[in-house]
């Protein structure tokens, strides 16, 4: 493939690789050729000193100038393709100018009517052409300029200098040139094929390593999923067995009339059985909700509803519990909030989970605030803020996972199962919203649910009822 000095984005890689090969091959010529020029000039004793020095000076000057130019362009920042095109042009231009200086030996060192001198010059240029063709065969444009310049300086001096042409020497030069052209074409084809194969090999290696990384990731995911499954089963085992054992054990006591006529004892144990049954029911409901959320089977029963009334109800129902725990329950509910198009049961469950967490994780004397408002962009934000024990930053992601209890609450007697926030997140996302957690250990926690502005409905009779709450 022939790459011009102006490659397109598709063949830039080939031009870059070809230029790389060329610069590697010509690495030492910037020093070797001036040294060679010095030796040739020194050996040409029959040529006037001024001519020898002029030619040598020209070669050294251009070799030095090119070196400076290469260093500058190699460091130049810029767009890779534009940079490559500039480098190609500078390399080709400087190679051409150096070539003219080098080949001009056949003019500067020419001795009229000295066939030996002419043969020597032709021989030196023929050798340098062979080297140049091997070095530049990879870059067609450079090969062409090397070839034409060498051939011109081998064939033209006798004509230009009005000397008697040597037909044998010129004929041999032409045959030699034709042979070199064939060799250069073959070399170019083989180096281009090698570069293309190398690129394909590199592409294959990259594909293979990407495939390996992907398979490693998949294996890690599968292992994590396996661990999560066993963790889930062991959690469920514990969560189901504990209340079930209480139910079986205490009902056994009642069945066998273990307390004789002590009616109060029976009532006390029946109460425990009832609480355990209630706990089991909540757990089963939570699990069913989570299974639906995770399986993508949650179907919302959306309708126009009042979030202000719902939050008011939930707060009312927890007044007694807050008072018993000596917690100050505050409402910051914006009653001008518009009605929402949402699943009331899901939002109620969100609010219940948030307030029960806040009451559970706040010490006596603390404050729990239930809030609801809109932000500047019309989003509806509601949630619960507390001055409780807070959640450490490292646990922030974990608390939204199934059974994702954070470590600090192991001392809290009234532990839950760790499903509440997973359900809150699932329900919020099912409403195209999301949950935000702001918390600092020892200072408190704010859990906010953001619902998109599109869920708000123009105020109707619902908001009128809400205002009465
Ligand atoms: P469940 O809600 O299923 O009865 P739970 O309350 O332990 O159990 P989540 O509601 O999912 O589970 O909460 C997960 C964990 O997040 C809690 O165990 C607790 O460690 C932490 N957490 C949640 N809310 C708060 C809060 N307001 N203050 C401090 N920690 C909290
Ligand atoms: Mg909870």
Structure description:
It is built from 14 helices and 7 strands. The strands form 2 sheets. It has a 5-stranded mixed sheet with strand order 2-4-5-7-6, with helices on one face. The chain starts with 11 loop residues before the first helix and ends with a helix. The model is unreliable at 408-413 and 461-469 (pLDDT under 50). Helix 2 (29-43) runs antiparallel to helix 3 and helix 7 (140-155) packs antiparallel against helix 9 (167-255). With 469 residues, it is of the alpha+beta class. Magnesium ion is lined by residues 353, 356-357, 416, 420.
Short description:
With 469 residues, the protein is an alpha+beta fold. Helices cover 64% and strands 9% of the residues. It has a 5-stranded mixed beta sheet, covered by helices on one side.
